[in-house]
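Table S2 (continued). Query chain:
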Amino acid sequence: MQLKPLQDRVVALKEQPMETTKSGILLGEAKEAPAYAVVESVGPDVKIVKTGDKIVYKNYSTTDIKLDDKDYIILKEEDVLATL
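Corresponding output:
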C-alpha cells in the first residue's frame, strides 16, 4: 500500500537509529530517534522537496504511521528544515 499525500504534505520513511558505531561499538537504546527520513512521495503543491531526498524535519510536527512494518511520517513541506 502506498500513501498519497495531499496538498503540501510529504510522506517519508523514518530512518532507524544506529545500533553500532563505525568502529563496531554497540550502542544502547537511543534517547532520541534521529529527526531525518527519506521522502517516499510528495503532494501536488510541494515545490522544493522531491521523492528520494533525505530530509531533516521538525520532530514535533509530524503524523506517525506504521504501514507494512515500516515507520512513515506525514508532514507539511514547511516543516522540512533541510535536505542531506
